[in-house]
Amino acid sequence: MSDPSRLRLEEPTPEVVAIITDIEGTTSDIAFVHEVLFPYARAYLPDFVRAHADDPQITALLDEVREQARRPDADLDTVIAILDDWMAADRKATPLKALQGRVWRQGYLDGDFTGHVYDDAVAALQAWADDRRALYVYSSGSVAAQKLLFTYSDHGDLSGLFSGYFDTHVGPKKKTASYTAIAAELGEPPESLLFLSDVGDELDAARKAGLQTCWVARDDETHEKATIHEGHPIVTSFADIELI
Prior knowledge:
Layout lengths: L6 E3 L8 E4 L8 H22 L4 H14 L6 H13 L5 H16 L9 H12 L3 E5 L4 H9 L12 E3 L9 H11 L6 E5 L2 H9 L3 E5 L3 H10 L4 E2 L5 E3 L1
Parallel strand pairs: 1-8, 2-3, 2-5, 3-4, 5-6, 6-7
Helix pairs in contact: 1-3, 1-4, 2-3, 2-4, 4-6, 7-8
């Protein structure tokens, strides 16, 4: 794969006051999510749900599952089967992500794994934070799961670098309205925000909302998609992003 030119965001591009980053495939290896986190959740989520089904917070999430599945009378075993089907399909359902986050929390606390974050992402995020640029995360994983990954990362506790987190409660990642809502919540002009992701439809939605975008293509397959898709600057590493 040929190295792309370094991305230089400078005049006449508006100053970037905040960076919003995706996690999976962007700050963190997609293999960590699919080969560590997802299998862990599938293995332990059923027992977790049964053990905490009377917890009001868990009960509310299970009711959300019933509502989204249009199975209002589903018993606990049926709800667990629905969740397993959703995990197998990698469905971005908000109650599923919240339940996965609760299971992963125990895994992090028990030291079963640490959150993978690329070296170049850590270095860039630290530099941007030192430069007083606000950092935010927007991922389909729950806010709780996002915080866990960066708190218990293999680089130590990185949570202090971030000013806030967004998940699908703000809206789907491929919808323009989600990015408009994020900009409004941050109180910043959309053009002053930079969104980093490895998914073209997400980047398209962010650009339509007025945000600056950058496609982080860490492997050959993603780089090929980015090249064909067009419309966004492409880098292979956070080290290639230079904010002037």
